[in-house]
Write a structure and sequence with these properties.
- It is a single chain.
- The two termini are 21 Å apart.
- This protein has one domain (2-165): MoaB/Mog-like domain (Molybdenum Cofactor Biosythetic Enzyme, Chain A, 3-Layer(aba) Sandwich).
- The chain is an alpha/beta fold.
- The protein has helices at residues 2-10, 32-43, 58-69, 89-93, 102-116, 142-165; strands spanning 16-22, 47-54, 74-78, 99-100, 126-130, 133-138.
- α1 (2-10) crosses α6, α2 packs across α6 and α5 runs antiparallel to α6 (142-165).
Length: 167
């Protein structure tokens, strides 16, 4: 515990973040979840260096994430993490994880179950590292976004950057 506290204390306080909304129906104008992520990150002093909406298409998602990874410390993808045939966010990015963070999925599912019950098992939220960039894939609902960003991503962003991005 003492080491974790020290790591968090010494961690960067500001990150360059990109937001990717995966949807066939949303645009930047009506993207409530992407706007919420932006608001939550900016409130904590993080810089938004990219915000896009991409169709539920594996290769488009992959291409955009790889481009954004060049200038981002953190990328948060929202949408496309469920179990329908159109949900391909995980399949698009997981093959590029140099390291996966399985604890993120576990904690997200646990916290989600406390809010929505057994339906939490339908989410495939995940996280990993691509090219020294922390990549989080979360559901697209505003409630899921709020939970993931407030309770998991923001509290650990600097800690992750301290271990992976700056080393």
């Amino acid at each position: 515990m003492e080491t974790t506290i020290k790591h968090k204390k010494d961690a960067p306080k500001k990150a360059k973040a990109s937001i990717v909304t995966v949807s066939d129906t949303r645009t930047l104008k009506n993207d409530k979840s992407g706007a919420l992520i932006k608001k939550l990150l900016e409130k904590e002093g993080h810089e938004i260096v990219g915000r896009i909406v991409v169709k539920d298409h594996q290769y488009e998602i992959r291409s955009d994430v790889m481009k954004l990874a060049k200038d981002s410390d953190v990328i948060i993808l929202n949408g496309g993490t469920g179990i329908s045939k159109r949900d391909v966010t995980i399949e698009a990015v997981r093959p590029f994880f140099e390291k996966e963070l399985p604890g993120f999925s576990t904690l997200f599912t646990l916290l989600s179950a406390q809010e929505i019950g057994s339906a939490a098992m339908l989410s495939r939220a995940t996280a990993g590292i691509i090219k020294n960039t922390a990549v989080f894939c979360i559901p697209g609902s505003p409630n899921a976004v709020s939970l993931a960003v407030k309770k998991l991503i923001i509290p650990e962003m600097g800690h992750i950057m301290n271990h992976v991005i700056l080393k």
